[in-house]
Specification:
There is one protein chain. The protein has 265 residues and is of the alpha/beta class. Helices cover 44% and strands 16% of the residues. The protein contains eleven helices and eight strands. The chain has an eight-stranded mixed sheet with strand order 1-2-4-3-5-6-7-8, sandwiched between helices. Helix 2 packs across helix 3, helix 3 crosses helix 8 and helix 4 packs antiparallel against helix 8. The radius of gyration is 17 Å and the shape is globular. The two termini are 24 Å apart.
């Protein structure tokens, strides 16, 4: 990965390449480093930027009671800091929610969005499960839930073949600030309630991808979101679970590379 830099509000970011700008936003509990396997495959003809969301990596903590708007404003301020007037945004998991909020808050600043393993309009059973998990994180901390999270995110075959990847993810989760993680997780857990009815207002080009066996960001969610966003494209990646950036960076990058604007030069 490139050198980590900081904007004037303390957001940690990386910036490499030239061409139309693409901002990559990670998921809750992770950091900009999840994009390491994707960036080299999409960088040609593009300026690729990553950030650490509030409460993650080297970025500041979110305020208590933060909303999705705070995370979108963090990203939009970074673009302003970098002098970027219009940008593509690819968001993974919670990052997909942030990308949608950006496109709704300031549509002139967001050229196109790719929503990777995103949640949309959880049903009552899914909503209760995420509410319960959020309360358990608050009561018990993250550590007891790391094995279960990794099992949901990666297929058994990949975990068996790549124990080093599993260990790296676990270490990254353990490195989170407890307050930052919980405040961010609450945003991830409950923002789809208010975001879903607004998604039809997204007017930019949109690509929606998820894994066939992703139990949290399901194919049903992807198709439902695609039905709300006019002209969007939905892609279901066979045999995969949630953490596409780690398990299938080549496949994910091919879809992103085909979709995202590239400098003709």
């Amino acid at each position: 990965m490139s050198e980590v830099l900081f904007d004037t509000r303390g957001t940690a970011y990386t910036d490499r390449g030239v061409g139309p700008a693409v901002l990559l936003i990670h998921g809750v509990g992770l950091s900009h480093r999840i994009w390491a396997g994707v960036i080299p495959l999409i960088q040609r003809g593009r300026r690729v930027i990553t950030l650490d969301m509030l409460g993650h990596g080297a970025s500041p903590l979110p305020r208590d009671g933060a909303t999705l708007h705070d995370y979108a404003q963090q990203a939009l301020y970074l673009l302003e800091h970098l002098g970027i007037s219009s940008c593509a945004v690819a968001g993974f998991s919670m990052g997909a929610l942030v990308a949608q909020e950006m496109a709704l808050d300031q549509p002139s600043r967001v050229r196109e969005i790719a929503l990777v393993s995103g949640v949309h309009a959880r049903n009552p059973m899914e909503r209760e499960a995420i509410r319960k998990r959020t309360q358990e994180f608050a009561d018990l901390g993250l550590e007891p839930f790391i094995p279960g999270a990794i099992a949901r995110w990666l297929t058994p075959a990949f975990r068996q073949a790549h124990p080093e990847a599993e260990a790296e993810i676990a270490a990254g989760l353990r490195a989170n600030n407890a307050d930052g993680y919980l405040r961010s997780y609450k945003v991830f857990a409950f923002s789809d309630d208010t975001l879903a009815p607004r998604a039809g207002g997204i007017a930019c080009r949109t690509l929606i991808l998820t894994g066939e066996h992703d139990g949290g960001s399901t194919p049903e969610m992807a198709h439902a979101l695609g039905a709300r966003i006019a002209g969007s494209k939905v892609v279901i990646l066979p045999g995969l679970r949630h953490l596409l950036t780690t398990e299938a960076p080549d496949l994910l990058a091919r879809h992103l590379d085909d979709f995202l604007t590239r400098d003709p030069a």
